[in-house]
Amino acid sequence: xxxxxxxxxxxxxxxxxxxxxxxxxxxxxxxxxxxxxxxxxxxxxxxxxxxxxxxxxxxxxxxxxxxxxxxxxxxxxxxxxxxxxxxxxxxxxxxxxxxxxxxxxxxxxxxxxxxxxxxxxxxxxxxxxxxxxxxxxxxxxxxxxxxxxxxxxxxxxxxxxxxxxxxxxxxxxxxxxxxxxxxxxxxxxxxxxxxxxxxxxxxxxxxxxxxxxxxxxxxxxxxxxxxxxx
Amino acid sequence: xxxxxxxxxxxxxxxxxxxxxxxxxxxxxxxxxxxxxxxxxxxxxxxxxxxxxxxxxxxxxxxxxxxxxxxxxxxxxxxxxxxxxxxxxxxxxxxxxxxxxxxxxxxxxxxxxxxxxxxxxxxxxxxxxxxxxxxxxxxxxxxxxxxxxxx
Lengths: 230, 151
What we know:
heterodimer, A: alpha/beta, 6-stranded mixed sheet, 5-stranded parallel sheet, 5 helices, 32% helix, B: alpha+beta, CATH 2.40.50.1020, 5-stranded antiparallel sheet, 3-stranded antiparallel sheet, 3 helices, 10 strands
């Protein structure tokens, strides 16, 4: 097969947001380095990881994906468990509040439970995936589709391609996973990316007239999203 | 080469080819017998509301998603009205189960990579699609590949 050229999509509407987070983390690192006491056990790695998880949490809240705030909260808890335990009055040799695997398992169950209870927006078809799997989208119904991938590997295909009239939109929410979306090369694709430390690959399309357009809204958190033109 | 046919009531119908070595003659005879025994070459499927007949040689794999069977070619996917078990009865030997919910055409496989978890991923020639092979079926897939590609 011929080599493909991919457009590495660095442009992100979150660039200012991430800039503020990283600058804030840098300021805290400097303060900690010059000896300013930020709290028991607040080390450089805790500051950096905590800032990343906080950014993730804020992003989920801003995007109004309230069912996806559990995991960043869980990671923040695990990162700052010792300082939290110390602040609660535990002695230095007894700073483990709870096993990390239990925290992660509880976060997983809470996320699944919340997603089962909180209704999706009307008129939207949503696909949630937690592991390796395939999704088949119907070309006759691409008006508003969502694909959610949590640490899994997803291949998405489009069937009934001739039935697609254009004007559709696919929302991809990828959390630390991999999503590959197969799209007919005869369709024009427009992409908006909200990229948090992830990678989005979109091949260049030839400059010509297309009879149908499909919009992609890609929200990528530390994962990989790849568009493949068949 | 001698041709010997043994008729015995009650025994299963089978063809045994005995030779001291794998020669071109043996390969030719094997292909001729396989063609004579070949199963129907097309599978009925649906796309864009119409029924079409897919040559099974163009199919890379079948998989069940949301209670539907999809036949995947190099650049398209079709809904197949048959169940996976029924397909298994019809398809030739190069097709075999890759997991509980998929059948793969081993003749299209270009490479297989194994992960530490035991789940393998098969890559095909002519498409970017891939399919996962579960640990339970990996050995069978390898055996089919070796058997159908050896000669």
